[in-house]
Design a protein that fits this description.
This protein has 403 residues and is α/β, with parallel strands linked by helices. 36% of the residues lie in helices and 21% in strands. Strand 14 and strand 15 form a beta hairpin.
Length: 403
């Protein structure tokens, strides 16, 4: 239950959720997650963000190791989503803070989530500052990273950027700093988080990074509200560059073949498509939807320039798991992708055409017609699948060569 000093008189007082597997109801977090909150001891004792409501006792125990919570003067709410502000009402009642600071959009969100009558709320915009005594907080609105109310807080004297959801990862562990784990673990967790949560807002990511760069801030630590903290110039540069890379659309020379199947016919088609991709020199990954959550597919899709989506025809339509994936994919709006649709059928065969139209409406390049197979695929049908894989693979190779 101990707090952790991350800077002189700046402490992590958050909570680690080892049991979390369902993150926000739409994404899997197989490693759990953290809800990071930060307490600054200065002339004005200030708590930056809080935690999910069920974790309030953990946060308060850590705060009490440092100071009586009732002595907290200021609350800074960088984001009102309930994994960071779920216990805000309880904290306000307990601490009775002198001031509560949030962004202009944060005020609307706060009023929408809580009964804020009588709360001493003060709005801070980009460029505004706040003196804590020895420290000055600089506020940077980070709209749509990933809510309209999102905001960064920069503590100039500590060279510390409190980035809320940006640069976050879903990792539950005893370590608090990114350099305490292998870089590959951090990279995967950042990729998973970004491509399932932040991806639709890539233009805003680029804009915010440019805004931060334009301020010429001296940053040697980035402390997000999920996952591990980046400390030192090298890790800070890594975190910033990783987000720049994620936000820049580009073609990737890899494919995924994802599908659902009833009696393995669509699965056989998927395997034959994979053979065709191999002929074209394109590495691929098979992702059956009965074994892979839609968020795992989107994480894999981050490294792929082509996606094949397959479904048998079910009640004149697509399988529910495939419909789930397509709905989820549409909301995340991936760029620079080639698509293709396939599937088996017994009576009618509408599913591949429906998938093709879904992908086309998402803006995918669709170089081949949807492929159907009646009943169990035989030699000729499997050859058509191989030809589809090879054709799309060649189209992807050409795209990657001219990017």
């Amino acid at each position: 239950m101990n707090p952790l000093a991350i800077k002189d008189n700046v402490y992590w007082v958050g909570a680690v959720d080892y049991s979390c597997r369902d993150f926000h109801g739409y994404s899997r977090s197989p490693q759990g997650t953290t809800y990071n909150a930060y307490l600054v001891l200065d002339e004005k004792i200030t708590l930056f963000d809080t935690v999910k409501s069920g974790s309030i006792s953990l946060m308060l125990q850590r705060i009490r190791e440092l100071v009586d919570p009732e002595k907290i003067d200021y609350l800074v709410v960088n984001h009102v989503e309930l994994d960071h502000a779920g216990c805000l009402g309880e904290i306000v009642n307990l601490c009775k803070p002198e001031k509560i600071f949030c962004s202009p959009m944060g005020l609307k969100s706060m009023q929408g989530h809580f009964d804020t009558e009588g709360w001493p709320i003060e709005v801070k915009k980009s460029g505004d500052t706040l003196s804590l005594g020895k420290r000055t907080v600089h506020f940077i609105e980070a709209r749509m990273l990933h809510w309209p109310d999102s905001m960064f807080s920069y503590l100039a004297e500590d060279k510390l950027l409190l980035s809320n959801d940006a640069f976050g990862q879903n990792i539950a562990c005893s370590e608090r700093f990114a350099d305490e784990l292998d870089r590959e673990v951090i990279e995967h967790a950042m990729k998973e988080y970004y491509h399932n949560i932040v991806q639709p807002f890539a233009p805003q990511v680029t804009k915010t990074l440019e805004q931060v760069a334009g301020l010429n801030l001296d940053i040697d630590m980035i402390a997000p509200d999920h996952g591990l903290i980046f400390r030192g110039k090298d890790d800070v540069a890594y975190a910033l560059e990783t987000y720049r890379r994620y936000a820049a659309p580009g073609w990737k020379k890899r494919a995924i073949v994802t599908y659902d199947t009833m009696w393995h016919s669509t699965e056989r088609m998927a395997c034959a498509i994979g053979d065709g991709l191999t002929e074209a020199g394109i590495p691929y990954h098979l992702l059956p939807l009965k074994a892979n959550h839609h968020s795992a597919v989107m994480t894999a899709f981050a490294d792929a320039g082509a996606v094949f989506v397959g479904s048998p025809t079910h009640n004149n339509g697509i399988m529910p798991g495939v419909a789930d994936l397509l709905t989820y994919m549409k909301g995340l709006r991936p760029k620079c992708k080639i698509g293709a649709a396939f599937g088996s059928f017994g009576w009618s065969g509408e599913a591949p055409r429906a998938i093709h139209e879904w992908l086309e409406k998402m803006g995918f390049e669709m170089p081949v017609e949807p492929l159907t197979c009646n009943w169990v695929p035989k030699k000729d049908a499997l050859e058509q699948c191989r030809a589809m894989g090879k054709s799309v693979g060649q189209a992807l190779a050409e795209r990657c060569a001219t990017k």
